[in-house]
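Ops channel
N.P.: pipeline sanity check, posting one input/output pair.
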């Protein structure tokens, strides 16, 4: 009986240790950086002299520093909505989508201001469906716009880290 108990404890311990190692081996972390070049339009909805809602949409291209890897030369799309009230800090939300040559996508939620911020991975489709977690830091530049009502931007994406299965 004692032998059976000892064998059971050893088997349980080995299962936990080896199972944990197998899970850890299945996890992979990707790191990369790059630059997004985009242009877009903004629609401003003035509620009154002191309150404004702004909607933006951009389209562009992503270029990874390495010249290859996930989402090198991918299409980018950002949509966002913000609210600004008198004496209040602007509040808003932005969603960034990267679309690769096969049409598979990754969606990020962006937070920050018009000069820098952070991104948090929301999810992916196709071959990126197993991208579980991800973060990024970004810095923005805004060259002079095109015609009135449009704008351009350059986003430097740093420290992109994605955990996959």
């Amino acid at each position: 009986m004692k032998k059976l108990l000892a064998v059971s404890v050893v088997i349980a311990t080995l299962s936990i240790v080896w199972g944990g190692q197998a899970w850890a081996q299945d996890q992979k972390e990707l790191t990369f950086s790059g630059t997004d070049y985009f242009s877009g339009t903004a629609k401003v909805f003035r509620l009154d002299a002191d309150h404004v809602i702004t909607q933006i949409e951009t389209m562009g291209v992503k270029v990874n520093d390495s010249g290859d890897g996930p989402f090198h030369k991918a299409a980018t799309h950002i949509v966002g909505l913000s609210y600004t009230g008198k004496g209040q800090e602007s509040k808003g939300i932005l969603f960034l989508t990267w679309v690769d040559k096969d049409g598979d996508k990754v969606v990020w939620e962006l937070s920050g201001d018009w000069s820098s911020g952070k991104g948090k991975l929301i999810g992916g489709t196709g071959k990126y469906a197993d991208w579980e977690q991800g973060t990024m830091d970004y810095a923005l530049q805004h060259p002079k716009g095109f015609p009135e009502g449009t704008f351009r931007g350059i986003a430097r994406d740093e420290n992109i880290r994605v955990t996959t299965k």
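N.P.: looks fine end to end. Residues 40 and 114 are 14 Å apart (CA to CA).
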